[in-house]
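Thread amino acids onto this structure.
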């Protein structure tokens, strides 16, 4: 019931207060707090990433004093001019997305000004690309850009395909259309590639010739590709469902996924999305793929053919089934926490993937619990979320924060000295929203979440407000 949810919400807020308090005490301004040794660590070039990623979580949890303190740090300390080479994708989704959402909720111009400064530095990743597909890294100091070496010098689908919500919002609010034009063009270019299945390999050569060339033949909804598919739907929602290209790409990709990649396990008939490498199925599924439950449900509830249409019903059924599988990925482990990826096997559903027994405090399963709970009202998702939260409390909590696990089967393991900013930005936020019947968040009519769980108002609402303030 809502009353039970509210009492659980209290405990999740307590977790945020605990971890935020220690971040401020031991690591204020650093990218991350080390949760075992109580030190700060700069893994993202020193941009206060945990602070920026946490702003809207503080706001939504009504932690007013903490939000004000973080705001003051942004005003007096945040300076991107000294930061060297960063990942364009990670900085866009965590930092730019975090600043924009803080602006959207609080209305404080300061956040938008900082976001504009950051956006101007990041957008230089497009400068010397002849194909219109940006480079994966850029120096915030001098604009030098290149692709990431470990990706074989290729551009990565999930990276260049996950900038649009943030830059389109920035363009609208600062009246600087170039931010939208450059990032939207990426989707037009990808649409021209037009694979029959609607599914895209994840590496591209982007620095030679006029058009990007696919550089492998690997299809996945996990690492390297995931949020490209997420943004097909969400960019369409952000624009108020007025730009059919994005919805068309999304629907085509979901048809392709159902046809080629969706599988069922034995003996429990668990739904999962396998990878497809050079036409051959690899029956593994990343924890990252667990966002697909929420995405498919959102796509079904906003389907132009209506929720009762066969396509929307297919997608909602798959959404529920995948989310159940993700819950199983948690509940079948000794700690009650999922591994990084699982391998599906004939006759015993799945086992932990080779080299993947760890848990990095990732959010995707609880993200889908929240979205499905919000849309369907089915109480089971709150129960699952509560179980996951209790397991995190039991096995990931340290003296100063929460740490990643090395092995989700080991109930005596000590959490690692590592806490990603998405634990505060996403995992705790989605758990809180799942248990918050009074939330101002409205994912059907008002907000779109970027891939780092930063909610932004959709464009029709912003334009409406613009018109009404213009009249005053
Ligand atoms: C986050 O940075 C984002 O959710 C991204 O889309 C995927 N990886 C992490 C969380 O797992």
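Threaded sequence (472 positions):
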């Amino acid at each position: 019931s809502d009353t039970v949810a509210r009492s659980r919400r209290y405990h999740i807020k307590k977790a945020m207060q605990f971890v935020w308090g220690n971040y401020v005490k031991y690591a204020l301004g650093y990218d991350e707090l080390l949760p075992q040794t109580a030190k700060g660590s700069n893994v993202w070039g020193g941009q206060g990433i945990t602070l920026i990623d946490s702003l809207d979580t503080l706001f939504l949890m009504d932690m007013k004093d903490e939000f004000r303190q973080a705001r003051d740090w942004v005003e007096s300390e945040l300076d991107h001019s000294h930061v060297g080479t960063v990942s364009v994708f990670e900085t866009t989704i965590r930092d730019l997305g975090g600043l924009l959402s803080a602006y959207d909720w609080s209305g404080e111009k300061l956040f938008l000004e900082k976001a504009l400064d950051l956006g101007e530095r990041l957008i230089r990743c497009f400068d010397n690309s002849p194909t219109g597909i940006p480079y994966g890294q850029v120096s915030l100091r001098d604009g030098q850009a290149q692709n990431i070496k470990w990706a074989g010098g290729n551009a990565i689908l999930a990276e260049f395909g996950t900038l649009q919500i943030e830059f389109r919002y920035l363009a609208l609010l600062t009246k600087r259309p170039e931010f939208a034009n450059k990032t939207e063009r990426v989707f037009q270019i990808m649409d021209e590639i037009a694979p029959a299945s609607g599914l895209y390999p994840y590496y591209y050569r982007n620095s030679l010739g006029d058009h990007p060339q696919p550089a492998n033949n690997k299809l996945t909804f996990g690492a390297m590709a995931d949020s490209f598919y997420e943004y097909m739907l969400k960019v369409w929602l952000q624009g108020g469902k007025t730009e059919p290209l994005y919805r068309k790409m999304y629907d085509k990709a979901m048809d392709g996924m159902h046809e080629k990649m969706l599988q069922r396990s034995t003996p429990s008939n668990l739904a999962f999305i396998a990878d497809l490498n050079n036409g051959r199925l690899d029956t593994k599924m990343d924890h990252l793929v667990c966002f697909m439950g929420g995405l498919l449900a959102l796509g079904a509830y906003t389907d132009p053919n209506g929720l009762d249409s066969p396509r929307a019903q297919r997608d909602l059924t798959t959404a529920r089934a995948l989310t159940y599988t993700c819950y199983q990925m948690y509940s079948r482990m000794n700690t009650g926490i999922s591994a990084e990826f699982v391998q599906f096997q004939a006759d015993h559903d799945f086992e932990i993937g080779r080299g993947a027994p760890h848990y990095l405090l990732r959010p995707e399963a609880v993200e889908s619990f929240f979205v499905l709970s919000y849309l369907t009202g089915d109480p089971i998702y709150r129960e699952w979320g509560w179980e996951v939260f209790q397991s995190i409390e039991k096995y990931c909590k340290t003296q100063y924060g929460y740490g990643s696990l090395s092995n989700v089967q080991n109930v005596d393991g000590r959490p690692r000295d590592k806490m990603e900013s998405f634990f505060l930005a996403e995992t705790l936020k989605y758990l809180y929203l799942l248990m918050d019947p009074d939330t101002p968040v409205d994912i059907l009519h008002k907000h779109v979440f970027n891939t780092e769980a930063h909610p932004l108002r959709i464009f029709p609402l912003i334009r409406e407000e613009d018109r009404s303030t213009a009249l005053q």
